[in-house]
Amino acid sequence: MRKRSCGTGNGAALNHLKAALTAACLGLISVFWPGTALLAAEWTATPGQPLQPLVANAAGGDLIILPEGRYPAPLVLDKTLTLRGKSGAVIDGGGDGHAVVIKAPETVMDGVGVENWGSDLTAMDAGIFIARKATGSVVKNARLQGPGFGIFLDGVHSAVIKNNVIRGDAGRRSQDRGNGVHLFNVENVRVEGNDIRRTRDGIYIDTSRDTLLRGNHMQDLRYGVHYMYAHDNRLEGNVTQDTRTGYALMQSKRLTVVGNDSQNDLRYGILMNNITDSTLRGNHIRGIRQQGGAGTISGNDGKALFVYNAQFNRFENNRLEGSDIGIHLTAGSEDNVVTGNAFVHNRQQVKYVATRTQAWNGNYWSNYLGWDMDGDGVGDTAFEPNDAMDRLLWRYPAARILMDSPAVLALRWVQRQFPVFRPQGVRDGAPLMADPARPASAPPGPKETTP
């Protein structure tokens, strides 16, 4: 390994003179342009050789170039450096522990492949582990494939995780894999434009605040995004596909969930458990159906939106489409504002398990059969998506086989004509007559790539 130089003079005296003049000039630069990287050097690694000696010789602010080839780990970046990989440059974790640990602030890893790190989830083995002191560090354009956590951020502030490709070990059970990106006790972190597949969860956010998750694609996972005890966070423009649950929002407050897409996720598009004071707006959830067909397992229907013990939230301009159940509310999920949403061709638009009427307004229902005599775009009669027969079928699921029988259809008709025993439930007092402009669908997921 050698450090590049700018050339040499002839004779010791000339060298001393040059050094003195250079030092004086750099001193003036540091006065007039504070923060300028001075004497930053570029180092080139040798494939097959450990990188740690090169890091030890480099100074803060230096650039280390990794040409194509494999480099043995572990590697600890304990000073502020930029590590830039050329195509085919891979750090091999050797199957044990962390492959790379970032400990210094403002460190940048750009375009470096990382593979084959440890699988001990208790020890939090990760391809890239970002420690608390690595404030402002950036990992971008990386290609990671391994059994443990992909990128683990531990208590760090102001880090950026951007445009990375992360793959788990498909040969392991889902619960034995690490998460693609794991955020623990972080603040002001941005996770953007990543493609994550076959890990346990795509992005896991635990006890963190002021994070932004934007434009990520997550596929073939348990949960695409998983929040736990995470307040004041924003989730925007992400796509989940073929997961067991697209977005699992749990035990959190003041989440802003905007413009996300859930495509063909198995059990839930968005799951909300004990969520308060949050906003869900402009999300598109479609094709959430139980594997094997609706009703295969009683109570396990696919739910576009499942709301459990969640209060004081706002659901606005979301599109819930083509699922077994559009929205399922239970366990005291009340005092929420539900307006401007489109419930389109779900087998059952609403399942509401409670005894208190919920007043919604201004949603579109594809099965609304009312009329609009004054032409204001709002139905003249309220829409109640459920009746007493629905409640009976929820209580006795085995009776579902009779759902479309003449007897049940007759009972539904009688109840509509003579609503003497109207059950408590959801009532939309101003149903929209026309399907509102549907949000732009997310483009297909990026083509599968192998790191």
UniProtKB/TrEMBL annotation:
<dbReference type="InterPro" id="IPR007742">
    <property type="entry name" value="NosD_dom"/>
</dbReference>
<feature type="compositionally biased region" description="Pro residues">
    <location>
        <begin position="441"/>
        <end position="451"/>
    </location>
</feature>
<keyword id="KW-0833">Ubl conjugation pathway</keyword>
<dbReference type="InterPro" id="IPR006633">
    <property type="entry name" value="Carb-bd_sugar_hydrolysis-dom"/>
</dbReference>
<feature type="domain" description="Carbohydrate-binding/sugar hydrolysis">
    <location>
        <begin position="212"/>
        <end position="381"/>
    </location>
</feature>
<dbReference type="InterPro" id="IPR012334">
    <property type="entry name" value="Pectin_lyas_fold"/>
</dbReference>
<dbReference type="InterPro" id="IPR006626">
    <property type="entry name" value="PbH1"/>
</dbReference>
<feature type="region of interest" description="Disordered">
    <location>
        <begin position="428"/>
        <end position="451"/>
    </location>
</feature>
<comment type="pathway">
    <text>Protein modification; protein ubiquitination.</text>
</comment>
<protein>
    <submittedName>
        <fullName>Nitrous oxide reductase family maturation protein NosD</fullName>
    </submittedName>
</protein>
<feature type="domain" description="Carbohydrate-binding/sugar hydrolysis">
    <location>
        <begin position="58"/>
        <end position="206"/>
    </location>
</feature>
<dbReference type="InterPro" id="IPR011050">
    <property type="entry name" value="Pectin_lyase_fold/virulence"/>
</dbReference>
<dbReference type="InterPro" id="IPR022441">
    <property type="entry name" value="Para_beta_helix_rpt-2"/>
</dbReference>
<dbReference type="InterPro" id="IPR051550">
    <property type="entry name" value="SCF-Subunits/Alg-Epimerases"/>
</dbReference>
<keyword id="KW-0677">Repeat</keyword>
<dbReference type="InterPro" id="IPR026464">
    <property type="entry name" value="NosD_copper_fam"/>
</dbReference>
<dbReference type="Pfam" id="PF05048">
    <property type="entry name" value="NosD"/>
</dbReference>
